[in-house]
Amino acid sequence: MRLIGFSTGALAKDDFRAALRIMARRGVQAAELSALRQPELIPLIQELDDLDLRTFKYVAFHAPSTMDRDFEPVAIAALHQVAIRQWPIILHPDAMHDPLKWSHFGDLLCIENMDKRKPIGQTVAHLSEIYNLLPGASLCFDIGHARQVDPTMSEAAAILQCFKGRLRQIHISEVNSQSRHDPLSFESILAFQKVAHLIRETVPVIVESRVREDEVNEEIQNVRKALSLENVLAMAGD
Amino acid sequence: MLLSSLANEIGPSPSLPSRMLQSCAMSAYERAASVVSEFLEIAPLPTVREAASAVRERLDSLLSTEIPKYTSEDTSLVVFGSLARGEWTSASDLDWTYLIDGQANSDHLVIAQKIRRILDKHKNEFSPPGQTGTFGNMAFSHDIIHQIGGQNDTNKNMTQRILLLLESQAIGKNNQAHERIIRGVINRYLEEGNHLLTEDETRYRVPRFLLNDIVRFWRTMAVDFASKQRDRGGEGWGLRNAKLRMSRKLIFASGLLVCFGCNLNSSLQKKISTDKSDIKFNLVNHIREQIRLTPLEILAKALKEYDVPKEVSLKFFGAYTEFLKTIDDGDSRQKLEKLRARNSRTDEIFKKIRDISQTFEDGLDLLFFDNSHLAPLTRKYGVF
Fold it and tell me: Which of A77, A117, A225, B39 has the most other CB atoms within 10 Å of its CB?
């Protein structure tokens, strides 16, 4: 059975303690600590020792989505606290000013494919160039971003086929036309089912849908439906 | 293909580290290098290719100055014709469409009108598109993707759709809408195909729905040629006829090659896996990659892949380059524009065009009817 958890940002924006409490109450077994904005990074890192994360089988850390050039070395130094815990560091490719400075994180550095607002990181071609610079890095495949970039899911399939050896984590949500993360709709579930067979069951899934606490378990069920291998459709062939 | 034009194709990104940008350009260069053949270096092809690249850059710079952020993640400015094919000559028209794939927004019309006004102000540099209204307007993804066939698939809609696939280029950095719509269209054509593989599941079949629409497009262009002759009282007959014989026929031939390539391309056949879910994705991605090339590049690639003798290839490219030289010559182009059908048999320039186009057609006949790879497919899918 797939390991499915939530991003703290999706449940309680920058209040990661509140988000972790919701997850604990709902029996969620995977968590992504989210510091999406630059000022959130250091306070969250400083709290890591005090967080009770024992109930989680999997923990990841989302680095800021944009960073000032001057802040980049500060962030890299701070993220060593994450790396020593062997947690994957999820990073947007356009957040890096000097990619080579991130290379020492090896496969703990998990590059996320981007939504259509971003200038890079949406396609196999873009991601290949990033992996040329960071050959050891892994992939956080955001299936919602991939669907927003190409609703036919053919680019999603190409990314998953091309980088299957790098796949370390999934982000899932419905990414709307304004690039906000919504709960899964029937339409997005159908779209995600088309590539579910390309995602190994052992790859942890982090939900980014913005939901209330009472919607957490329903959203997890919808994610299970979307990524269920039983629902894979035969799309062509005799 | 030139490195500078490839870098332009990808588009610069202010937030992208320069090292990464350089790396992107190299990768695209390597991709395209696989199809660059000696034939694409025959004069004036490098010149018209560079000219097209420079004009696209100039267009982006002009519009960016006058309308900052004139495109977005939901809109792309797309050019067609010689500018997209990399065949820009001195008096080429600028065929453009403001392509929309997003929420309805009344500002889209304002932007399209503004683009039209700016281009009109610079009409010495950018000749306005033709009179049919197919270009110089807005176009919406919904009709292009959903109205394939049926009563609502107008001549304009079908033309835009096929040209989007076979000869279009997004201007500037925002090409997401253009890219999404192209994938959406390819996906539509394949969705309607019940069996994408042959019965023994060893090869992809020729995508018949797409092929039939490309054939329909070609026949429509030929029929519309006669219709325009009547509507416009014979005005512009000579140049339209020359384009039909050469550049329009090239677009059709490149479309056939893309469709036949689905059955013939060995690396695509290798991707047929036991998992049925990947079959369509692989084909969508294959077709998308093929149509990134210009029609001339598709032709050059086919000549290489299907072992066409060099003398035949030289005939093709010799004829096509002669055609480009002729329409690039101001005097010849003007004579062709003024030429009426009744004088065509005695006109020297048109006689030259007829000879060039005969050579080009002889090459096409050899490629499609005599080549051992393509001839069986032409026989099976070409007419009946």
Answer: B39
Q: What is the distance in angstroms between the CA of the first residue and the CA of the last residue of chain B?
A: 37
Nearest to B276 among A150, A157, A235 (CB): A235
Q: How far apart are CA B198 and CA B272, in angstroms?
A: 11
Token pair belonging to A106: 């090896």
The correct answer on CATH 3.30.460 for the domain covering B56-192 is: yes
pLDDT tens across the length of chain A (238 residues): 899 999 999 999 889 999 999 999 999 999 999 999 999 999 999 999 999 999 999 999 999 999 999 999 999 999 999 999 999 999 999 999 999 999 999 999 999 999 988 888 999 999 999 999 999 999 999 999 999 999 999 999 999 999 999 999 999 999 987 788 999 999 999 999 999 999 999 999 999 999 999 999 999 999 999 999 875 554 444 3
| pTM for this model (two decimals) | 0.85
Q: Is residue A238 part of a domain?
A: no
Tokens linked to B95:
């065929």
A-chain residues near B196 (CB < 8 A)? 236-237
ipTM passes above 0.90: no
Taking the C-alpha atoms of residue B61 and residue A53, their distance in angstroms, rounded to an integer, is: 53
- Residue of B281, B284, B285, B287 to mutate for A, most A C-beta atoms under 10 A: B281
Q: In chain B, whose CA is at the least distance from the CA of A195?
A: B277
Domain with CATH 3.30.460 in chain B: 56-192
| Amino acid, res. B152 | N
Number of domains in chain A: 1
Q: Pick from B15, B17, B284: which is nearest to A152 by CB? A: B284
Range of the domain at A149: 4-231
Q: Do A153 and B281 touch (CB under 8 A)?
A: yes
Is some CB atom of chain B closer than 8 A to the CB atom of A137? no
Q: Which of A116, A117, A134 to mutate to test the interface with B (most CBs of B within 10 A)?
A: A116
Task: Tell me if the bond preceding B44 is cis, omega within 30° of 0.
Answer: yes
Is the Cβ–Cβ distance between B128 and B363 less than 8 Å?
no
Q: What's the CA gap between B233 and B285, in Å, rounded?
A: 45
Q: Which of B144, B176, B186 has the highest number of chain A CBs within 10 A, making it the mutation to test binding with A?
A: B176
